[in-house]
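Ticket #4471: structure export looks truncated?
Reporter: QA, pipeline team
Priority: medium

Steps to reproduce: submit the single chain below to the structure queue and open the exported record.
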Amino acid sequence: MRSTFTPTPSHIRHDWFVVDASGMVLGRLAAEVARIIRGKHKPMYTPHLDTGDNVIVINASKVKVTGRKAEQKKYYSHSGYMGHEKFTPFASMLAKHPERVIEKAVFGMLPKTALGRQALRLKLRVYAGAEHPHTAQKPAPLTFGPSEAK
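Actual output as written to the record:
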């Protein structure tokens, strides 16, 4: 009789990857980063366990969007009081907080559960420039998108 393999903490290894976001499309970048954080690229993926890897995104300020999203996209927030909703345009969010643009896009592609929130908080690190303080982890460069096809 065969049984289903379920990974234990001794089987799970959390690797580190670094992604250069310069010139990449926001949605496609977020989809791939969410897939790596979730662990869906591994053969031992299990939906109820944290099998994902850590991702460092650099050059977040150089991410681009397609179409007219640069002028039309807005980020919504609400304070909880009536009439206190705030809409922040994409251009000003990218200028002031480029890290949040990628964090919000990846968050939208993760499950809205405790495991999804934990994965976003612990496994995603976003930096606006090209420098990051995680060189000790020896992150492997991760390439995908149009540059991979060339």
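Status: closed, not a bug. The export was complete when the record was re-opened. Leaving a note from the reviewer for reference: The chain has a mean pLDDT of 94.
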